[in-house]
Write a structure and sequence with these properties.
The protein is of the alpha+beta class. Helices cover 29% and strands 37% of the residues. The chain folds into two domains: 38 residues; 148 residues, no CATH class. The relative contact order is 0.18.
């Protein structure tokens, strides 16, 4: 009888270990899926696309997303501090900043960002959205960079914002998903 209990105890411990290993990834996937489904959608105009090659990740699309800080709206923060940014949509359908704050602000359209995201530039101040990679088929990544270089004024990203966080939904060229655009341009079909 004692051997049977030991046997079941080992299996119970193994099952508990498996459940604990799966809990984190499943929770993250559920959280990101909820963010995609229920977050507020924003189009981000300032989008830069690059196709890097990484020996560990392969080919992917590195992106740099930013929203211009309106004239007269400033925020004095240190690089290690956090700050908050409220977004709204302008008449053209793109994200604009309506509030910057060093103290927490309430609302569904607020992002919490690191001070490093606030960029002071020669021509414009901007806030960098903390999304740096966009995954798509490896064979399409070089074509995505070419599409960006050829259609720079038409490229934008769609993000979803909820609970001080954001996620990228897609990259677009003139209203068409970049995957569809590059497949069509290369004649590869869908």
């Amino acid at each position: 009888m004692q051997i049977t209990l030991k046997k079941y105890g080992v299996w119970a411990l193994l099952l508990a270990a498996v459940i604990m290993q799966l809990y984190g990834p499943v929770k993250t996937i559920a959280y990101k899926n909820d963010l995609l489904k229920t977050g507020t959608e924003y189009n981000v105009r300032r989008t830069e696309v690059v196709d890097p090659i990484n020996p560990f990740k392969g080919r992917y699309v590195a992106i740099n997303l930013g929203v211009d800080v309106p004239a007269g709206m400033e925020l004095k923060i240190n690089g290690g501090d956090s700050f908050y940014m409220r977004l709204e949509t302008d008449a053209e359908g793109f994200a604009i900043i309506t509030e910057l704050s060093a103290v927490p602000i309430e609302g569904p359209d607020v992002l919490k960002l690191s001070g490093r995201a606030y960029r002071m530039g020669w021509f414009t101040d901007s806030v960098q959205i903390p999304i740096y990679e966009y995954y798509m088929q490896e064979k399409l990544a070089p074509a995505a960079e070419r599409a960006y270089l050829n259609e720079r004024d038409k490229v934008y990203a769609v993000i979803r914002v909820k609970n001080l966080d954001c996620i990228i939904e897609g990259l677009y060229v003139g209203g068409e998903r970049i995957e569809d655009y590059v497949a069509r341009e290369s004649g590869a079909g869908g």
